[in-house]
Amino acid sequence: MSENGADPQQVLAEEILADARRQADRLRRRAERDARAATEAAERDAEAERTHRLDKARAEADRRRRLTLATVPVQEGRLRAARIEEVLDGIREAARERLIGREGYDYREMLVRLAAEAVRAMEGRTFVPALAEDDRRDYGPDLAAAVRDRVGRDGLQVSLSPEPAPIEGGVIVRDGEGRQQWDNSLAARLARLWPQLRRRIAEETGLLHERRSDNDEQGMMNDE
Question: pTM (2 decimals)?
Fold first, then answer.
């Protein structure tokens, strides 16, 4: 036994238990610190991920907004171009109706001129102009002679077709052998002249300038 009468084994056991308690306490405190550090790190990571996703979402929203805004001038240009085409189509249809209605011009003179123009464009000496059914009745009897006089070609033979042409006005001319044909009907004539007339109308009314402005805006946007 020790000098104070304590049991040495009891003392040793108590010292071992005390040391174990101290180590356990240190481990507990360390575990708590590690747990707090892990929690804080997880919170930082979560906040960073949330911020990243928000930034990404904002960037995507901004990109979509810019794309939408960028299409506005294009859509506006297309709508304006469509309206211009509607206007031009209306002008063309009005011109066609005026031609068919024989308004504002000498229709017989035009028939002679169109037939003579067709004859001059083809080779040969024998030609057969064909008119619409009503025109054949109203203007046919002396048309052939007027065309011969207008062309003035020696040995020229012109005779009106016995069959009406399936046209609304104007004339279709074939040669005597049926190898050549020149369509100078009002519809065909307007179709050939329309590109030039369309451009002239667009230039004189400023419509062509608007189309060019739209194209310039689109080109600038594409360059950006």
Answer: 0.58
